[in-house]
Amino acid sequence: MINHIGVHIREILLVRIKGHKSSAKCGSKKIFHRAIRKYGIEAFTWQIIDRHGNYEYARDVLEPHYIKYYNSHYKKGFGYNMTDGGEGSAGRKMTDREKDILSKRWSGRKNPMYGTCRKGDMNPFYGKRHKESIKKKMKLSKIGYVPKSDWNIGRIPWNKGKTGKENKQSKIYRIIEPGGQENIAVGLRSYCLLHNLSYGNLKRSLYINQPLVKGLYKGWQVIEKDDNNENRCRTSSERC
Fold this sequence. Notes:
Elements: H1 13-25, H2 31-39, H3 55-69, H4 96-105, H5 132-141, E1 172-176, E2 182-186, H6 188-195, H7 199-208, E3 221-225, E4 231-232
Antiparallel strand pairs: 1-2, 1-3, 3-4
Helix pairs in contact: 1-2
């Protein structure tokens, strides 16, 4: 009798049978699936020979044990198993034909590493030496070198602690109070800190593009000014 031993995580044997049938139908090159295509799924008898609650134990211990017990390795015995069982492909050796196919598939320009060899005389700098002056320059260039991934560790941002006019990126705003008085502010946050105002409330006025209608800051409005000193309302659609 020719046997094939396999481990499966599910209890239902029919699921395992359907899986092998599907693999055979899809053109799997495994010996067992080629036999199913040749003789038909009905030519094989299926049965559960052992059970275990731990899948890893069943795969790594029981499957190799039964492959050896039933002598079902296709080379070492008389069966359809192509490995000794367990995880991986232990005991599976490629045939000369398979080796030849892989060799042709990845040889020459088909190999992704083709043309990238720089060892020995293939290296354009092979047999050459740097001048002492060049070596000295290379050594000096490495002094104080910091990898790109670490270049910002420990560095202090150029604008840390700078607000208002001290920060070159601060924007200019027109702040209109409820009584109609207008003030020009360089940096909204610094203006609020200086005059003890709520930055969150004034910023909300900036985004809704209209005076606040409730709360302690009712009637306040903030308008951002562009580089040409023209009033520009900052809204989600950038419309004035």
